[in-house]
Amino acid sequence: MKNQKSDQLPAGWHKAFYTLWLGCFITGMGYSMTMPFISLFISDIGNYSKLQINLYSGLAFAMTFIAQAIVSPYWGSLADSKGRKLMCMRASGVMALTITLTGFAPNAIYIIVMRFIQGSFSGYINNATALMAGETPHQRSGWVMSQMMTAGTAGNLVGPLLGGGLSSFFGNWLGGAWGYRIPFFITGFLMFIVFLGTSFLVHEDFTPISREKMKPMGEIMKSLPSVKLIILMFVTTMLVQSSTMSIDPIVSLYVKSMMPNSSDVAFVAGVVAATPGLGTLIAASKIGHKMDEIGPLRVLRIGLMIGFILFIPMALTNNPWVLAALRFLLGIASAGMLPAAQTVLTLNTPSESFGRIFSYNQSFQAVGSVLGALMGSAISGFSNYATVFWITGFTLLLNFILVIIFAWGISYRDR
Q1: Which residues, by range, are in coiled-coil regions (predicted)?
Q2: What is the mean pLDDT of the chain?
Q3: How far is 9 from 264, CA to CA, in rounded Å?
Q4: What is the CATH number of the domain that holds 299?
Q5: 313 occurs within a structural domain
Q6: Beta-ladder partners of 303
């Protein structure tokens, strides 16, 4: 695969882009269709105590990210030698199988094992993004990275609504745990469609590289224009993902504390949880174009600072609708964080190393997911919900300071 230096898109680019975008959308939708209801599923298939349900649910959530963090570098190396398309096929094919099998789960341990296997073979969105990064002219990289992020975000928005509706419908119709099993079967089928689409509709301009000819990762890092900048983007990905995940586990509880006597807590909490994704979805395209105009590092700095500022009133408000509005604005700012970091990686990494660099970035993102969820749960348990917002905001401020210090004066490709 070669980096595109002209502004011309290669033949078949649009077909590959739309196929991979849809694949990322279904991957994001499939995850959010099933994960929000995993604790209810576990409680229905076994006689577990409240502590066991919480523990097993937490393990089922964390196992995927732990597996990703461990295995991603290996898959990244394979992607650089065999191609990103093959990795997308591997991820979607195994996800179709493991998600379907999870629907037949007889107990919680089975679910946890399946989630670990799924995480070990995951990486569709990561490899689809790396594939499009290599096929896209640099002048359009910002917009493409934003659009690829939008796909997963849109899927995450639709998933809970679809999963909740399917669970209720089939639960009333079939009874028992089947209401929670059916979404797994539907998701598995959709991932199989993604596997077929990726196999037959995506063309990758890639020449396989023998293992003997592949540069070691240490040599690649030394040859980069700025190793410091690449590592900084890894850390940025981890901290931004951590700031996102720290809020997710406690949003509904925070909303409940604001309206203790209301019967609409679930609905309002769903709105509050969904608004960041809606903001990102609306703003991603425009911010992507702006990124191509002024450079991803500038957009990243602005996004981090706005994110930090928004967390201050979030920690102070006692109105869930104000919280929802602020989180909508945070979603807009988020459209300038992770896509900007990915764009910096794209512009400062040789094409033959995309797979490994993006896989390491995925590992840092997975670590951020685990750290964020643990941080949010622990802080809210030992202190209060507002403290989670304060500390998360200062995490983004720390990230902003790191970008200012370590990216200042560095020789890099920012446009």
Answers
A1: none
A2: 85
A3: 49
A4: 1.20.1250.20
A5: yes
A6: none
Please write the tens of the pLDDT for every residue from 120-163. 998 899 899 889 988 888 788 888 888 898 898 888 878 877 87
Quote the CA–CA distance of 211 and 345 in Å, as a whole number.
23
* Of residues 166 and 408, more confidently modeled: 166
Write down the H helix ranges in 296-353.
296-316, 320-334, 338-347
Q: Which residues pair with 4 in a beta bridge?
A: 137
**Residue 405 CB neighbour total at 10 angstroms:** 9
- Whether 389 is in a domain gets the answer yes
- Greater pLDDT, 265 or 86: 86
- Total-model pTM: 0.76
Per the structure, the complete domain to which residue 126 belongs is given by 10-203
Q: Are residues 221 and 365 in the same domain?
A: yes
- Determine the pLDDT at residue 177: 65
At which of 173, 203, 233 does a domain end?
Answer: 203
Q: What is the pLDDT of residue 190?
A: 96
* pLDDT: which is higher, 194 or 210: 194
The count of domains in the chain is 2
Distance of CA 79 to the CA centre of its chain: 19
Number of H helices, E strands in the chain: 17, 0
The beta strand positions in 116-220, using DSSP E, are none
The letter for the amino acid at 154 is A
Q: What are phi and psi of 144, to 5 degrees?
A: -65, -45
Secondary structure class of 137 (helix, strand, coil): strand
Which pair of structure tokens corresponds to residue 254? 């925070």
Residues 223, 351 share a domain: yes
Tell me how long the chain is. 415
